[in-house]
């Protein structure tokens, strides 16, 4: 029984088991710079700039143009998800039920990876005056907000990809603009969100705009969970979204176990099995000029564009 137990937690049958709707997670993998971890700390080295100087024509000591070197670091945080399973119950379950348990555990870790990134963005924007906030949350989202944020990121000199996750309702609002609706996603096809059929995405004016499940948008007075009458968002408030260049944010995981490990516990009645997944990592803001907070009125439906 214990030899076969790990196989029960691999997905075998997609049908029949109905999981409550939830974010599968892992969508933002690959959208931030990697760091170097060790001794419970993740480090991201940052270098300044060097400017050339004109020679005076005389023999004299050189001018010091060494670039500023600094280190952004963040402590590693540890997470796990687990589920007990009685051997007696396992004998009664079909393979699809067993796979569903493993899938839910894996999703918990993938969601946590995304949440760490979004939490770091919010912390960076809240605690750093150099991160500009665009909009005051009283007006519906406009593509001009995206252009302002993107032009400032590119204007600072960023050359890497720029990302902007939004809610499904905000994406619907963008689809009211013909120029956006006719755009195609032209970023990397290997990224998790790009491979997901459930995630809508467009590359518009150099910005990779993608949807995430509503549960990830938890910042602002109208954040997910504040709504009523069946709505996740409160339209009386605002939500904070974030646009960033890849190197402006850092993320690293020293340990990331999505496939559950199975252990049996003979000291418990019935020798139950414990399935566990885990994550050790964190995210942090690095370059404030490459991050923008876009504050918009919370929406649950699009409005007509004149």
From TrEMBL:
This is Capsid protein.
């Amino acid at each position: 029984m214990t030899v076969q137990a790990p196989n029960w937690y691999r997905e075998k049958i997609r049908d029949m088991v109905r999981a409550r709707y939830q974010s599968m997670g892992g969508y933002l993998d690959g959208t931030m710079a990697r760091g170097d971890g060790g001794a419970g700390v993740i480090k991201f080295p940052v270098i300044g700039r060097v400017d050339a100087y004109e020679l005076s024509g005389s023999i004299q000591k050189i001018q010091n143009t060494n670039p500023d070197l600094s280190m952004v670091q963040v402590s590693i945080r540890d997470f796990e998800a687990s589920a007990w399973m009685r051997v007696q119950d396992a004998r009664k379950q079909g393979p699809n039920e067993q796979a569903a348990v493993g899938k839910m555990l894996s999703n918990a870790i993938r969601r946590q990876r995304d949440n760490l990134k979004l939490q770091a963005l919010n912390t960076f924007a809240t605690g750093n005056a150099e991160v500009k906030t665009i909009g005051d949350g009283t007006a519906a989202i406009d593509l001009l907000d995206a252009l302002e944020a993107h032009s400032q990121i590119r204007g600072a000199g960023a050359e890497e990809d720029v990302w902007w996750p939004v809610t499904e309702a905000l994406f619907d609002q963008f689809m009211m603009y013909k120029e956006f609706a006719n755009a195609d996603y032209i970023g990397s096809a290997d990224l998790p969100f790009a491979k997901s059929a459930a995630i809508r995405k467009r590359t518009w004016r150099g910005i990779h705009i993608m949807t995430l499940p509503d549960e990830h948008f938890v910042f602002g007075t109208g954040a997910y969970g504040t709504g009523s009458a069946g709505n996740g968002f409160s339209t009386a408030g605002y939500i904070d979204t974030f646009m960033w260049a890849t190197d402006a944010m850092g993320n690293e995981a020293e340990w990331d176990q999505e496939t559950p490990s199975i252990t049996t516990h003979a000291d418990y009645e019935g020798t139950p099995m414990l399935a566990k997944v885990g994550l050790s990592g964190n995210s942090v803001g690095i370059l404030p000029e490459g991050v923008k907070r876009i504050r918009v009125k919370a929406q649950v439906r699009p409005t007509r564009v004149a």
